[in-house]
DIS3-like exonuclease 1
Amino acid sequence: MEEKLVKTERRLRIKGSQGKTLRVVRELYLRDDVPCQSDRCLADCENNIGMHGTIGRLSNESTHYIIPDCQVARDYLEILETPDIKGIVFTQTAVHSVQHEGSKRLYTRLQNLIKDGRKRSVIFHNEFQRYAYCERLPGENLVHWQSRSTYKACEWYYDHLAGQIPMVMLTHNEEAIQLYSDKKVNVFVMTVKDYLAGFWEQLEGIMDLYESLTTALENKSKDRDYSGYLPLDVLEAGIKSGRYIQGILEVNRHNASTEAFVRRSGRTKKVDSVEDIFIHGMVSRNRSIHGDKVVVEILPQSQWKGRSLAICPDESEDKSSTDDKESDSVIPTGIIVGILQRNWRDYVATFSPDEESNKNVNKGGKVLVIPYDYRIPKIRISTRQIDKLKDQRVLVRLDSWEMDSQYPNGHFVRSLGMLGNLETEVATLLVENSIQALPFTDNQIKELPSDTSDNPWTMTDEEISRRHDLRRSHLVFSIDPKGCEDVDDTLSIRELENGNMELGVHIADVTYFIESGSLTDIEARSRSTTVYLSDRRYDMIPPILSSNLCSLISGVDRYAMSVIWEMTKDYEVKKVWYGRTVIQSKYKLFYEIAQRINEGANDDEIIENIPELQGLDQIELDIRLGELRWAVNKLMSVARILKCRRASGGGLELDSVEVRVEMEESDVENLTPKDHLEVHETIAECMIFANHWVAKKIVEHFPNQALLRNHPSPRQDQFDMLIKCAASKGFNIDTTSNKSLAESLNRCVDVNDPTVNKLLRQLAVYAMSTAQYFSTGSIAHDQFFHYGLALDLYTHFTSPIRRYADIIVHRQLLAAIGVDNSDNLPSNKILDELADHINIKHKAAQNAQRDSQELFQSLYFKDKKPDDEQCIVDAVIFQLRVNGFLVFMPRYGIKGPVYLRNKEGQVVFIGKDGKPEWTSGTLVRDDKSITVNTLHNSHKYSLFNHITVQISLQSSRAHSASLRLELLDNKPLKDDKSTLNGNQNTDRSDIVKEVQSTMIEGSEKELPSHDLGPNFAALKREFGQTDDSKSLYHIFETFKKISLQPL
């Protein structure tokens, strides 16, 4: 090895702290065995780098390799990030330039590009390669040396690979182009523009992106982005001392110009009882944007403010003039004094209408565009395509935000399509949630087996012999929603000869088909989850696996990963077995028919809904019907016991609304809340049971690098809304533990109104912390627990088709049981980073699903007239504000605001004819109700009152359309057909009773009453507070407010 090293020296001139220039000489050792990292290598380079040996390799399928110079790597990295452009070699010189001359965010993006195995791009350490190293000549300027080093690397690659593949050097240095372009055949030197025009002219939008980046560079100010903020060393010292607090800025989308919060990432000695710091107004936000990692200085307590208690429309107009009387109690308030990391992403924006566009365009061709996300301020971009793009949604990216500018600067990237088009709106919500939905590449598909009529996929005898074959011994079946194609879980249950019970959960063996480190694995890791929208889904893995070879459909042999428990007659686990199996699902049931089987459906109904039972002779049919009835009933019985035990330990039974969008071709026919059946809980309980036992197994073998899922205890202040709402009905909520909370919710039952318990459980969901994936070596063991499920250990194992976390857990389980080698498992550090990535993608998928439901809700009401019976519904009040209240509409499972006071200050009043009218008046609010007072009369609205509202669509050019709710009547809707799923209430109440029977029921004691004496009533009448309706003070106050109303 020593013979390969060549010692040289690098002479540097460094400016010292006092401004003096110092000359420094550093030793440099050159070697000739620096790997090229190309699949075309003929020189036996040691190219097996990375955790799996294939990540970061230059593919032999590329038609050419690209080597950008330092300036291109800094200024046009966004072009190089385009998924279609692959095979990029970043020299060590260029990487150093990005790191030291660019920004931290730019350097992070470059690192992420290299880590993305789909890009097949690498870093070449040219400054250590003996034959690629370029020593800087005396007097040579930096740019010239950087260009010479880049071209030298191009020459070295071309010669090293024996001329197998052309090399392209990208530069904007005209001198370098003239000097090197004709120097060597098949080593091309060109500008980015010429390269894109010659190689990628067919790539849609790429030239527009180039022009937009070039324009942004030309207009970029010489001032640094972070001028006006405190120096980094001051910020770090302040954070360490506790003077400053760091955290992530989260803007309130319903009051975006006024309210934002910094969720602190570390505790300080000050204000320990509150996690979030309130940031009031755009000035205090100091040019930071939602998602930025910022540093906050807490203001003196005399300057603290409270968040608004009014319902705020989703508008970006300034609301800083909100009356203090309409604010909550003050909370710690601060100002942002520095930004540690910009977390800018792609933003969807829209140009202002024609009548406003001319006002917004200045002489330099700059125009303000309005972001789709209310939390993002208007963005100033430069474009020559205003007339062409004015009616389209466009994708823009931020470049900077100058200290003296009201708005940030950005550039146009591409158009998403015309406003109002469904595909445009779907593309918008994907971009807004940072979800890429690109088709799977040919190379990824080629890795996987095929299954066609000409070349059907079959199991191998060798693989079957290594597995436990359950095809003849077990009745395996699945229970899923109608139309489900990606069936990743099945169940089995049977009685053993010794009288014990055997329960089995069998999961698709995805890891058999997806090798760790393969292109398909890299893509699945990048996506991390399947994204389900109302009318479509975007798979995590290719359809050949998700809908075919890994889907456990009935009547087909499939590979599985199984967890099988032997239980005593009391359903105590005697032993558990983990391993790979071969199964054949006998039935693909959907939820409704499984529920009907348990309820005693007749044979004809069962046969009609289960194709596998059709066409059988009577004898076999009777046998199979009997087996299926027993299996379903027994499974549900076992699940009830498992649920009862978990609930008795504090497991929460919360509620969330899922709305089913019923489509007829491309039209939305109806919106209905999904029915909740007991069989849903049966399947969920079996999956929870499997996930818990798998978590125990992998933690036992990998205590410091197992992937688990924890659910932290919620903050007590998050329960305030729940406690107040329950108190309005006379219920007491104990939130000291998950068990006490579960018991409290079970007691909150109004026999006359089942919506009360449902809404209280939904409010409990709002109070919960977010469940997260984590590596066991990253947090303390006492933080492993799952609060909601009341389990000490929990993970995700049961859905590997749609969750990458489950794929990781499968690999860890296989290593734990000795089937696979544990050497390829990620370390704690890598796993922790991967867990963070999965958490981000999981949240994005959930948000996209929510946004999709809201989009299709808007489409449903788009063409409906206000007096349509489908637009007039019953609603339940569940939260009070100073200018209205929030309601829940059981018919559609939708929540929304109802205003009692408009922008003009008028209040809505229901007249004697039963019709609403806007008039002068006042609103009086307390913890349980809000009262509308007018000259005519007064109306009182209490929590959980039923009212009648009218739904209409409120369209928006720049943002998503929203539903507008207007009060029609202060009484429930007559002959309301909307119900709350009677099955759900019956089943849940039965289960609650069963759970409660296992607990110690405490007696409810009345509060003690104090004897105030026989004369108390008379004294109160004489000296007590006068009733509002008879008080002259309140009458004069009403007159005063009415006189201030506009005529």
Remarks:
- DSSP finds 30 helices and 40 strands in the chain.
- Residues 535 and 663 are 8 Å apart (CA to CA).
